[in-house]
């Protein structure tokens, strides 16, 4: 989910899901910050917003968060801005993809690190309907350490 601010997005999720989504952290490479909550085994919901305290990133922010149309939509109401599919081999997933999901970029937030496909434009193909691919390091899925204050999904 993307929102004009974490406060606005958290209030929206509280109203519509009955969940108090906890703060996550900052993505310094993207100039964003987030709130995250587990919604199932190996699944989490992330609320993203531009971090007003962050320096502008060297590249366009992910999920089209710099696109004026996306900014206008997130200002009207928090909304889905994209989705991410986990893979154990991001290079193979990228090669076999019928649409270019963007180059593989190494990212981190605090002690967490991951690889993710990010188009150079920052915009996911098909206006966010096409997923980004993510590869987490070996070990427990990050959602295992997240709280689950709201509804759950199953596979």
UniProtKB/TrEMBL annotation:
<protein>
    <recommendedName>
        <fullName>Glyoxalase-like domain-containing protein</fullName>
    </recommendedName>
</protein>
<dbReference type="Pfam" id="PF13468">
    <property type="entry name" value="Glyoxalase_3"/>
</dbReference>
<dbReference type="InterPro" id="IPR029068">
    <property type="entry name" value="Glyas_Bleomycin-R_OHBP_Dase"/>
</dbReference>
<dbReference type="InterPro" id="IPR025870">
    <property type="entry name" value="Glyoxalase-like_dom"/>
</dbReference>
<feature type="domain" description="Glyoxalase-like">
    <location>
        <begin position="3"/>
        <end position="148"/>
    </location>
</feature>
